[in-house]
Every structure is written in C-alpha cells, then in structure tokens.
Specification:
Layout (H helix, E strand, L loop, with lengths): L6 H5 L13 E2 L13 H11 L3 E3 L19 E3 L1 E8 L2 E8 L6 H28 L4 H8 L7 H10 L6 H9 L14 H10 L3 E4 L9 H14 L3 E6 L4 H13 L3 E5 L30
Parallel strand pairs: 1-2, 2-3, 6-7, 7-8
Antiparallel strand pairs: 4-5, 5-6
Bound molecules: adenosine monophosphate, fe (iii) ion (2 copies) and zinc ion.
Length: 293
C-alpha cells in the first residue's frame, strides 16, 4: 500500500473519458455559478443527452445554480455544493450532497464562504499585481459570476492578458497548491462545514481524496476527525483514476465505515479527463451515499 496516493500518476494515466462507460449517476460537477463553463440549464441538457438520470451540481461554495432551476424530464436533481476549507495547512474540498440549497443553514454557509472568497480574491490580486499582472481583480471578476471569483478566473485573466501561455502555467507558477498566490487561510473550519451540511439535511463527503498529496496516515487522521464531526462519505472515484487508487480509497472507505460517492468533477466540455457522466468504474461492494435517500 503506497504511503501517498499519487494523484499525479492517476491524472496522467493516459486514459480518456471517451473510452469510459457512460454512467447514469454524476454527483460532482460545476456550472457558471463557480468555475464551470456551462450555465445550469445547459448542464442539465448535457446530462440528459449523456444519459445521466441522477445529477448533483456541486459548485464551489455556491448553490446559486439551483435558483429557479427546473429539473428536466427523466433527470433527478440532488441538491449539492463543494465547500473549500483548510485542515492542518492543507486545502480540502468537502461535498455536501442531498442538501436543501435554500434552507437557512445553507444560506448562512454560502454567505460566509462568499465573503471569504471576496476577501481572498483581493489578497490574491495584490500578490499578482506585484508580479506585474495588470488589473487582476477587475479581470477575474469580469470572468466570474457575481461574488464567486476563484483561482481559475485569475488564471484565465492571466492567459487573456498574455502574462502566461496557459492556465496550467498560471497554476504551476503562481496559483497552485502551496504557490505564493494560493491564499488558503480564509475558509470556514471543516467542523463548521460538516455542521452546515448536516443542518441542511445532507451528507458531508470528502471530495477527490487522492488530490491533496496527503500521506495515508494524514488522510486517515483527517477522516477520523471528519467522522467525529459527523462527516459521512468519501468520494471513492473522481473522474479518471488508476484502479490502484480506487482500490485504496475503497479499502479506506470500508475501514472507516464511510459511504461512497463518485462523480466526474466536470467543468467544461472538451476536458478529456473529466466529461459529464464519465469516470472510472466504481467498486461494486461499497455502501453508496444514497443508500438511505
Ligand atoms: P478555488 O475554488 O478558487 O480554490 O479554485 C479551485 C479550482 O481551481 C479547482 O476546482 C480546479 O477547477 C482549479 N484548479 C486547482 N488546481 C488546478 C491546477 N493545478 N490546474 C488547473 N486548475 C486547477
Ligand atoms: Fe473547480
Ligand atoms: Fe474540488
Ligand atoms: Zn469540483
């Protein structure tokens, strides 16, 4: 069993989502309410075309996609969100699935995170300006929906103004995990996030556990604390990943008696490793997060 689950390997395993079977469930995807490229309505239409019958939109720190959104025939919409948080200096994402997006607890949660995101955007912009990026805050804001400016919007602005050649370079040099413009000390505590999700009737699920470069023992310590706060699930499959990573996460899921979730983490059409309804095969024997919905 490797000490560190190597996301870099799993991400570059060479498979393309087009070669994967089409799934009917997708519990992780993004819209223009955060850093996705499709409007909520366009996303639902795509889901329908892809044969997805159960979908959760999990925008970063936002439930705005659900405002006025009517499900399409044959497509069940499950309330969802993906919260950003910090644990022991590691930035983590916690999904809230089967939440009521409009209940007071969820409104309080997204208001807190939205404020955090706005303050964070100002700090990121100050840093980028020192590197010579022109008008980063204005640029990122113009690319984002109201109040939900994230690092991808800064990256897009840096590409648009010719500061870097592509978004990958922007993350690699400036915005990526641990780089100088990655501001993480702003989010609500993970314990608070779990409490908000539960108060909104949902289940808290650690998103894409293999992406944080945590050692296995650190991941286990987080998950033990997470369970203690009322966390209930682990995203055992996120997009395309190596079978060894899936096996490892499935084993963790059983060891800690967590429920299992899976999804594509779709952001935009054309991203070959994350298409809607396409992800590596989930293990058959785990208790799914939706077992008691
Ligand atoms: P934020 O919510 O502002 O922290 O931005 C997080 C989002 O940035 C993630 O959900 C990804 O969509 C994107 N992201 C994070 N790291 C990278 C990376 N190294 N390359 C490209 N996009 C990334
Ligand atoms: Fe994202
Ligand atoms: Fe995420
Ligand atoms: Zn996501």
């Amino acid at each position: 069993m490797p000490g560190v689950i190597d996301w870099a390997i799993s991400a570059s395993c060479g498979r393309r989502s087009a070669t994967l079977p089409a799934m009917t469930i997708d519990f992780h995807c993004h819209t223009t309410a955060s850093d996705g490229e499709l409007s909520p309505r366009d996303l639902l239409e795509l889901a329908q075309r892809c044969g997805v019958t159960r979908l959760s939109i999990t925008d970063h720190d936002s439930v705005a996609a659900y405002q006025g959104l009517n499900p399409l025939t044959g497509l069940e919409l499950i309330g969802g969100v993906e919260f950003s948080t910090l644990w022991n200096k590691t930035g983590l994402h916690i999904l809230g699935l089967n939440i009521d997006p409009f209940c007071p607890a969820m409104q309080e949660a997204v208001a807190f995170q939205r404020n955090a995101r706005l303050g964070r955007a100002e700090k990121i912009a100050e840093k980028l300006e020192k590197y010579g990026v022109v008008a980063p805050l204005e640029g990122a804001r113009s690319l984002a929906s109201a109040g939900n400016v994230g690092r991808p919007h800064f990256a897009r602005h840096m590409v648009a103004t010719g500061f870097v050649k592509d978004e990958k370079e922007a993350f690699k040099k400036y915005l990526g995990s641990g780089k100088s413009c990655d501001i993480r000390q702003c989010w609500a505590e993970p314990e608070q996030i779990v409490a908000w999700i539960r108060a909104a009737g949902g289940v808290a699920v650690l998103a894409h556990p293999a992406k944080y470069n945590l050692t296995r023992s650190k991941l286990v310590s987080f998950l033990e604390a997470f369970k203690g706060w009322g966390g209930g699930g682990l995203e055992v499959v996120s997009g395309i990943q190596l079978p060894a990573v899936t096996r490892d996460l499935a084993q963790l899921c059983e060891q800690l008696d967590l429920s299992a979730s899976w999804g594509s983490d779709f952001h935009r059409p054309g991203q070959s490793w994350a298409q809607l309804g396409r992800y590596s095969a989930p293990p058959p024997h785990l208790r799914p997060v939706w077992h008691n919905w």
